[in-house]
Design the sequence.
């Protein structure tokens, strides 16, 4: 599947505005979709706990996993297995859910998500490709 990058506005602190290319991927659930950033720097996929609750999960009943982001702050998360589709491909991955997760999209990390796909980033050309393994 070849998917174009999403172009988003950005700005350096006290600097000029510019555009960035983001590898955003739409995950399809029964009745709705959720957009996530493919993040090769993330060990595990992570989403806000409110999204897990929308899926019907009791997020705090999952396996506890303490993780640390690039800001160095420890965050308690709860791991659950979720199922979704990307186009016609069904996928099951572990996701860490947390009320402390503060990001506009979910993050798709290396554990499980990258284990299911070959992912190629073509930054200069403005697209990325994912192939089910």
Sequence:
């Amino acid at each position: 599947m070849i998917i174009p990058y999403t172009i988003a506005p950005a700005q350096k602190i006290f600097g000029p505005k510019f555009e960035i290319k983001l590898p955003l991927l739409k995950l399809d659930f029964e009745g709705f979709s959720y957009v996530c950033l493919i993040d090769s720097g993330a060990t595990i996929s992570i989403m806000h706990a409110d999204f897990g609750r929308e899926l019907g999960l009791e997020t705090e009943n999952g396996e506890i996993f303490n993780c640390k982001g690039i800001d160095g702050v420890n965050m308690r998360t709860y791991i659950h297995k979720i199922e979704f589709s990307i186009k016609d491909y069904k996928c099951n991955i572990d996701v860490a859910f947390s009320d402390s997760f503060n990001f506009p999209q979910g993050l798709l990390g290396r554990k499980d998500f990258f284990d299911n796909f070959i992912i190629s980033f073509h930054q200069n050309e403005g697209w990325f490709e994912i192939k089910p393994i």
Summary: The domain at 24-109 is CATH 2.40.70.10 (Cathepsin D, subunit A; domain 1).
